[in-house]
Amino acid sequence: MENSTVSFYFNLTMFMNIGHYHYPAFVFCLLLYSFIVSANLAMIIIILREKTLHEPMYIFIAFLSVNALYGSTGFFPRFLMDLLSDTHFISHPACFTQIYVVHTYAFYELTILSIMAYDRYVAVCHPLHYHRKMNSKTVYTLTFFAWVCPACYLTMSIIMVVRLPLCGNNIQKVYCASWNIVKLSCVTNAVNNIVALLGAIIIAFLPFSCILYTYLKIVIACWKSSEVREKVLQSCLPHVISFVIYSITSFSDTALNRQNLDEINPFLAAILSVEFIIIPPVVNPLVYGLKLPEIRKHIFKIFLYA
User: Fold this and answer.
1) How far apart are CA 6 and CA 10, in angstroms?
2) pTM for this structure?
3) pLDDT tens track for 172-188
């Protein structure tokens, strides 16, 4: 029975350390998940319904909300079930499915933020050519690469991880992650590790470089012209906030993967590992809903006529 469990299931060991916090954590996380679903659905519906919001910037915001629903749905249902369970075994197919969803969510967030940054760059630095440069064809092309590239990379990455022979089944997390499974491997495949590392660097470095470059150009444009500064800050500030929040939360999880978790407070480790899945889906609807006048106007209209 023990060999069978090792062969077909992974054990999420970080739940073992939560103790009496299970029930309060369940209620809090259920409310959090409900807010994420409600707020992001509201953003999507508002942008779809209002024709004045059928512009690239708002379409990309809707993509962020779609991704928030996608990522949180890949994490919360299983997480909530585990909070109330005495055992935390997850089958291999379920685990690899969760890895695919959570990791693609993380990369989608980055690629969507990068095309949003490019959109703002064109709007600020080339305002007279905005509609020509950000036409339907450009939006469709950017969207295609933003969704397809991470999916292809993660598919190849998971295929390599699935083929690894494993010498254990304990995952020191509250959800499945590919790096934790790689650490369980009985062998060290240098070629696979190098290919996976290079792929991750490329697919993360390109969007980060694009975002940093475009915002640098926007800052320079604002510095040269005080007339457009207020308008630019109003439209770009939400994007900058989203990017900073995502960067910090994703870095927390990446840094945590390189630490010895036995030396870290388990409650703190659990929080740091799920920040990038929880905080952006909660904060983004608030930031865009409250900061952008066009969306805020329609939100207030809904509340007034409700």
Assistant:
1) 7
2) 0.89
3) 888 998 888 888 888 76
